[in-house]
Amino acid sequence: xxxxxxxxxxxxxxxxxxxxxxxxxxxxxxxxxxxxxxxxxxxxxxxxxxxxxxxxxxxxxxxxxxxxxxxxxxxxxxxxxxxxxxxxxxxxxxxxxxxxxxxxxxxxxxxxxxxxxxxxxxxxxxxxxxxxxxxxxxxxxxxxxxxxxxxxxxxxxxxxxxxxxxxxxxxxxxxxxxxxxxxxxxxxxxxxxxxxxxxxxxxxxxxxxxxxxxxxxxxxxxxxxxxxxxxxxxxxxxxxxxxxxxxxxxxxxxxxxxxxxxxxxxxxxxxxxxxxxxxxxxxxxxxxxxxxxxxxxxxxxxxxxxxxxxxxxxxxxxxxxxxxxxxxxxxxxxxxxxxxxxxxxxxxxxxxxxxxxxxxxxxxxxxxxxxxxxx
Length: 375
Fold this sequence. Notes:
The protein is an alpha+beta fold. It is built from 11 helices and 11 strands.
């Protein structure tokens, strides 16, 4: 799930890169753009010797990614002008993700170890008006009963498919495909479509559920793809409930990275510590047993044979509220900048510690002298 909140693109990107809950009543990514997060995906991979870059094929009109990603620890951020791409300021028109992947290749592909993040834009709304990529492949679905809006959305997704094809081609040409992991996630469902458009597609493809964005009985509309791919890994499907907050710790464990799990509010979806649960911005949550709607404190069960006790519901909700409050407090107080400053200061103090060997007639005695500030 990619839970909706104040500004889903910026906030959900922030959650994915940090494994933190955003603050529900503000566009956290922009409001706290000056915060620093050394424990982000960029910071951890950078510390492990990877060259980290990020890319977006549009301007900073909506999100200040140059500042945000820099403070998240990326070595270098590239926007649409940095990539020397043509673009149109008109909202209905968006650049080509295929071109972005082509233009970005020279920025990172030759590095021995790289971690590259791409925020694509071509599939973005609107779908109710003609556009270059909304109409380019629309005829691929001319024999369906899909609405024009849905056909335009799928046409735009075709461009994203071709962008991924371009990425795979680049990696294979460089001999790096087998040694690269690709993680894909959607930041939110396609807002520009009506529920009927989405349901027509879900039904035609036998997905097994429908959506209602105003429902108080489920948050199925927030279901989005999350794919982790490597050419050498056998396919498997994780059935447990997860959200974008779980992607970072999952990747860090897959790479056997050194990190402190206490600094993340998601969990590795493959670990025993992961609870099958999708938590939403208002404190609501959903799992295989049903949906808890926080505004009315109502639990709707999907399995009639299972019921939580009141105490169990209270414990789940208390844990969620605590984690969300912790995240809000950490963001508002720029906690991770404070934490890394303290860690670095401690490391500096340790380096001032000297060891002196005092010889005696019988044996050497090792004593440690401390800097006064360490005392």
